[in-house]
Amino acid sequence: MRMVQFTDEDPSLGFQGRVCGGSRLRTSYYLCMRTYCTPSEGDEAADEVKKTCREVLAGEEVPGMESVAGYTDEEVENLPKFGRMGFEGGAGGKLDIVVVPDTTFFGLCWAMGFFWAGVVAVGMINKAIGLCMKSDRFSMPAESAPWRLVKRTIGLPATFGVRHAQSYGIWATVPPRIESITIALFVLLNIVLSVIGYTFFPGNMYYPKVRDQVLRWVADRTGIISFANFPLIWLFGMRNNLVLWLTGWDFATFNNFHRWVARVATVQAIIHSILYTMLIFYSMTLTSNSLLADLLTIYLLAGGWRYFLAWWTQLFWWTGEIATIALSALMGFSFYWLRRKQYEFFLFMHIVLSIVVLVTMLGHVSIFEGEYDALVWVPVIIWVLDRVMRIGRILVFNARFWNTRAQATFNDVTNMVRLEVPCSTSAYKAKPGTYYFLMVLNSYQFWESHPFTVATTTSHDGGEKDNDNMGEGAPLLENSDDESPDAPNTPLATGTMTPSISAKGDTMTFLIRPYDSFTARLRDAAAAAWPKPATVRVAVEGPYGHTQPLHRFDHVLFIVGGSGIVVPLSYLRRLREETPRPKTVHIHWTVREPALAEEVLRRDFAEALGGEGDQLRLDVYLTSSGANEVQTLMGGRSAGSSRRAVAGRAEEEAEDKVVQYHHGRADVRRVLVGECENATGSSLAVISCGPSAMQDGARQAVVQAMGVPANSSLRIEYFEESFTW
Ligand SMILES: Cc1cc2nc3c(=O)[nH]c(=O)nc-3n(C[C@H](O)[C@H](O)[C@H](O)COP(=O)(O)OP(=O)(O)OC[C@H]3O[C@@H](n4cnc5c(N)ncnc54)[C@H](O)[C@@H]3O)c2cc1C
Ligand SMILES: NC(=O)c1ccc[n+]([C@@H]2O[C@H](COP(=O)([O-])OP(=O)(O)OC[C@H]3O[C@@H](n4cnc5c(N)ncnc54)[C@H](OP(=O)(O)O)[C@@H]3O)[C@@H](O)[C@H]2O)c1
């Protein structure tokens, strides 16, 4: 109401006293309070008016809320309304009637919330259906042709062509199609809300020039919507995120939403700042109709700069400008290439700049006297809660978190760190497919926290393994035969890791592929102690992630590469021992290091390989060895495998039936075609975890398989376990 001018105002009373001089403004103000505020808020505001007027009018009293008691609700409803765009029809820009603001002053902030509430509702329905599928009381529902069409064309494919996990050069990855559509709708909503519903006309009471109206209204609108997006940015970016739990979607999905909401909010903030800055410049003596000419004038006019700089003495102004600069820098420092190459630097900048944005935004909206503060405090609360939950999870794993001593083993030929973490202290049992964040405490970069999927859990005390535990966790061997002087000198033999933990209690095993930073330091620490394991103190935060209902499918196919073997390992126990259980579990594992294949078969698959029945089959594709070498390696394995030495002939034959070695990469498409032929008329779960090209190949192959008429009676579901956040 501050900007609306009325004909019966007394200009001599100044801005504060405006409401005391003319009854139209005061009445309009009271009716606004009555319409949009609670009675107590209305009374509070009226008391403020009376107090101000007592000062301005030297003790004279003005009427309070009782002065509008005579207006019926119907009369108020029929009063002329004015919106953010102003009010056409005032005399000389001044009104000689009583008016109330319309609802364009309210509600924009909620549009974003409603949109994402809708998205989350879809996710919740999806989760509810998933829970029914998980329940043993329901059989796997058949799939209708239209639903399959929707899945095949919208739900599953990459947005364009094949690339989803693979990046477009150094620029970006593109989410799957269904996520891209959701994001596109969100972007569209923001564009539409930033663009529609303005009424520009010459002679508006706030800004007579249409140009200034455009600048001011659009600046206001984009600023408000940008700010309204803040809580969503923080909500979607947190590890401990309520909507993750409500929908059952993975972190990668919400991370994509986080990025796009943030990008949209940043662009809106930039537009907001530029338009306001232009408005300031235009409110100087600029008369040209050309922006370029005006900018030149601004540049040349020293006085103009002084006027502009005067705004920088205003708290709301400079904090707003800094907030926009910090938001833009946040976007720049989150560039895909930097995220991949300098993750810790990206994370540091993300945290520092986010704090700057929140603090400066609080200053920026201070002129609204608390009206918009919630849009800062909600993100702060979300952030603090996430940190509290993270600390809570660490303590729940081990209240004496500094005292978790893990054993790390590494040697060059396997190129894999095996980390065994004692987990008897944990209140939670690791579930299949879940991951934990690990921090190495006896490192000067102890705050670095990295996610790893728990491959197996093992009981070392000779007692029973908990039924909820997943994985196989072969009983630990005494020194392996492979390391005896007589063992054949093959990479398989030399590559075998020394069994590590001999302590009692449960352990979780992680297989960690060394990259360049955290994982490289872990590798170096372990390599320095080889052949003994290195002891590292770790803080363990978790579990995170969801267990997929793979046991509900008739057939389960894992397509994995390298360290991606941890995913089938984590599900193996559940898939083999719980009912219902799939008829077949086929694992196609492409791996470079033959020694790693041997190591994992011997230690992590031992129990499964020796089992009864023909449920499990494991195809190992060795890519660093030639065809002849593969034969040799297999021969070496037969002659010298420690497991065989311990287990004997019967298990050796059982293993030969289960494990097949191949030379070269798995042909993912061919594998899937074969699997579909075997699974006709039933249900098949396909899970991929491996290099991004492999994952994209698997996704594409599933999409194609869904379109094959011969597979119409086969229900196929695709699950991607990815580390590409
Ligand atoms: C859910 C999940 C489960 C995973 N499970 C395993 C596993 O069982 N075994 C395994 O070997 N690897 C796993 N990874 C990958 C593993 O987390 C990264 O390889 C590791 O964090 C890289 O650390 P670094 O500092 O050595 O990486 P760098 O060499 O600095 O970077 C390598 C890659 O890892 C990414 N990265 C780095 N730090 C993080 C982080 N804190 N969070 C997320 N990504 C990061 C980078 O963006 C980059 O793409 C998993 C990843 C995810 C998301
Ligand atoms: N979410 C999780 O839980 C999790 C856990 C661990 C790992 N991962 C993922 O697993 C990946 C594996 O990492 P890594 O370093 O262990 O792998 P890696 O050693 O680089 O590769 C593993 C194997 O996959 C092969 N390969 C690559 N592209 C292929 C394709 N298109 N089709 C078939 N085979 C292909 C490679 O063959 P060549 O030798 O011919 O290149 C190699 O033998 C990581 O990139 C990560 O994405 C995810």
From TrEMBL:
Transmembrane annotation, as ranges: 104-125, 181-201, 222-240, 260-284, 291-309, 315-338, 345-368
Polar residues: compositionally biased ranges: 491-500
Alphabetical GO biological process terms: copper ion import; intracellular iron ion homeostasis; iron ion transport
One function term, GO molecular function aspect: ferric-chelate reductase activity
Domain FAD-binding FR-type stretches: 381-550
Any single GO CC term annotated in Swiss-Prot or TrEMBL for this entry: plasma membrane
PROSITE patterns, per the entry: FAD_FR
Keyword Metal-binding among record annotations: no
Protein location: Membrane
InterPro entries (alphabetical): FAD-bd_8, FAD-bd_FR_type, Fe3_Rdtase_TM_dom, Fe_red_NAD-bd_6, Ferric/Cupric_Reductase, FNR_nucleotide-bd
Pfam families in the record: FAD_binding_8, Ferric_reduct, NAD_binding_6
Coiled-coil regions, chain positions: none
Membrane topology: Multi-pass membrane protein
PANTHER family named in the record: FERRIC REDUCTASE TRANSMEMBRANE COMPONENT 3-RELATED, FERRIC/CUPRIC REDUCTASE TRANSMEMBRANE COMPONENT
Family the UniProt entry places it in: Belongs to the ferric reductase (FRE) family.
Protein name: FAD-binding FR-type domain-containing protein
